[in-house]
Amino acid sequence: MVKICCIGAGYVGGPTMAVIALKCPSIRVVVVDISAPRINAWNSDQLPIYEPGLEDVVKQCRGKNLFFSTDVEKHVREADIVFVSVNTPTKTQGLGAGKAADLTYWESAARMIADVSESDKIVVEKSTVPVKTAEAIEKILTHNSKGINFQILSNPEFLAEGTAIQDLFNPDRVLIGGRETPGGQKAVQALKDVYAHWVPEDRILATNLWSAELSKLAANAFLAQRISSVNAISALCEATGANVTQVSHAIGKDTRIGPKFLNASVGFGGSCFQKDILNLVYICECNGLHEVANYWKQVIKINDYQKNRFVNRVVSSMFNTVSGKKIAILGFAFKKDTGDTRETPAIDVCKGLLGDKAQLTIYDPQVTEDQIRRDLAMRKFDWDHPTHLQPLSPTATKEVSVCWDAYEAAKDAHAICILTEWDEFKSLDYQKIYNAMRKPAFVFDGRNIVDVEKLREIGFIVYSIGKPLDPWLKDMPAVA
């Protein structure tokens, strides 16, 4: 029986290994992590992450050929294939701070694999890592190998949160990068054989190591660039009276462009886009490619600009001050169908409003109050470090309260900001909400999900990103 061990029980490791276990009943899969609370959660009825379909998959395999354990060294020692899915946070100090990936956790995982291994192993990069990481890992393993043969593969994940299980069941492509040596190609084939249980052969792509590593960063950079491009156009739409939804629909009909990732919004979030672009920028700078680095930096600048623009719209629309005003925040996760708040635009929008002394009432169907408070207390990039290095008990900001219902959040509010595109926000009783709000009542739709005309008929003053402006907003500045 082939034995797989995955180091890291997070958003990538947990779902990926669960699907491998489901699709490959003849393979024993163990997910290990040093965090006992996280492993306990994977072994309980309350999984540590929310992802549609994940619970079903885990329950079908757990205890049969899928196991979760804190005994890291034992399971690494026994494994034939070791996936490494640990954090690669952005460095917060030292060389490359604010851009480069911090490979501390990766390096300690590699040293531990070298220490405990008693048989040949295939070591698979599953985290998003900067180009040439495999080479560094290879050096650590070969210099500490005690005669054991290690083959390093890069197998980047291309999961989208909210559809991760579907993405794993039916991937666009599976990318496996390996050394172009007989041993390297044999290792590539071994991993191909795992995926071939359910993925058609023509979707399993083999490349060299560096191409696989760079493909992941490039894919995320291209997707983020599309969002920043349409958001840049949304600002122009507001200035000219064009409608960004109509413009992006027209653009998307061009088969060379396609319709995906062309929805204007308050900005992109998630654990990968910003981090991967910063990583790309750093690699370009290290290779003397400063024009290329500046090109990718601009994608992040537009994303920050969009969040600032949104906050400025809110403040300028409400007589240029939100001090002491109650503002309901609907949605805190970075996208619907996930409880993930990493780099969510909601953090920057909330901090911007709090900076102007607003009173916030926040509702999200999947994000806990503790997580919201923790996120608002954290400095940039802190989220990507282990929990014990994050603020322990976030200071309770008295200007923030968390509600478990959209109606409660909006009661007596001056304005509503929609920051996540949860389906339930489309079907709220907005007449009931309007009746319970202070007047004039504002809706700032950061996800373009409401029926603007219908809300205006009810009496709301509505701002929807990239749409023709409400007469109320016409002469108010979009940018401070």
Automatic annotation (TrEMBL):
Domain UDP-glucose/GDP-mannose dehydrogenase C-terminal: 328-452
E.C. no: 1.1.1.22
Catalytic activity, reaction form: UDP-alpha-D-glucose + 2 NAD(+) + H2O = UDP-alpha-D-glucuronate + 2 NADH + 3 H(+)
Name of protein: UDP-glucose 6-dehydrogenase
A Gene Ontology molecular function term of the record: NAD binding
Chain residues that bind NAD(+): 8-13, 33, 38, 86-90, 127-128, 161, 272-275, 342
Native source species: Carnegiea gigantea
Domain of life the protein comes from: Eukaryota
GO cellular component: nucleus
Sequence similarity: Belongs to the UDP-glucose/GDP-mannose dehydrogenase family.
Active site: 272 (nucleophile)
Pathway terms, separated by semicolons: Nucleotide-sugar biosynthesis; UDP-alpha-D-glucuronate biosynthesis; UDP-alpha-D-glucuronate from UDP-alpha-D-glucose: step 1/1
Enzyme class: oxidoreductase
Entry keyword set: NAD, Oxidoreductase
GO biological process, one term: UDP-glucuronate biosynthetic process
